[in-house]
């Protein structure tokens, strides 16, 4: 096994093919295996070797942390496709290597460890996400409620308006504002949850008190 001379075109082509369906030389996280092969490559692969170039630039971003990456750096011949002979002479001649597949066992062990770590992190993320309270969108409204004439009982009109109850609706302060000819309108504040209460619904319910209410307008609308 091995990539051969990674400074040669054939070695880089072999590396490119090897990384076509892999993110790292071994396992699912950057490790000393990536550092060893990165140092053997030496310089950026040509653009046409897309997979090798992508991997090279990614490992290059770990330049300052490479000493802390997991794993133990092995001889270069220990890395690469298993069906290619090591042309560097650094591996493959040792008889013990025929009996023990160090590369295979290390990869399996690291893959299981990386998989377990990923599952734990996903579980932690889902747990935090489920405990985080959902953001409720609210708005503050100022409503103008106009009576029919100056003889309308404004106290009764306000009582009717405040009798409207809905999930996500909270009434606030109010006052009477002169509009002319002795007529006053009711100006009343409320806070609504946007997903539960809309201005159309408020208008429909308020104007339903047709004995007192002529019309309703939204004088001010602010997101909270």
TrEMBL record:
Acidic residues composition-biased segments: 95-112
One Gene Ontology term of the molecular function aspect: translation elongation factor activity
Record carries keyword DNA-binding: no
Gene Ontology annotations for the cellular component aspect, listed alphabetically: cytosol; eukaryotic translation elongation factor 1 complex
Domain of life (superkingdom): Eukaryota
Domain Translation elongation factor EF1B beta/delta subunit guanine nucleotide exchange: 138-224
Region span, Disordered: 80-115
Keywords in alphabetical order: Elongation factor, Protein biosynthesis
Subunit and partners: EF-1 is composed of 4 subunits: alpha, beta (alpha subunit of the eEF1B subcomplex), delta (beta subunit of the eEF1B subcomplex), and gamma (gamma subunit of the eEF1B subcomplex). Interacts with elongation factor EEF1A1.
Function: Catalytic subunit of the guanine nucleotide exchange factor (GEF) (eEF1B subcomplex) of the eukaryotic elongation factor 1 complex (eEF1). Stimulates the exchange of GDP for GTP on elongation factor 1A (eEF1A), probably by displacing GDP from the nucleotide binding pocket in eEF1A.
Family under the similarity heading: Belongs to the EF-1-beta/EF-1-delta family.
Protein name per its UniProtKB record: Elongation factor 1-beta
Organism: Pantherophis guttatus (Corn snake)
Gene name per UniProt: EEF1B2
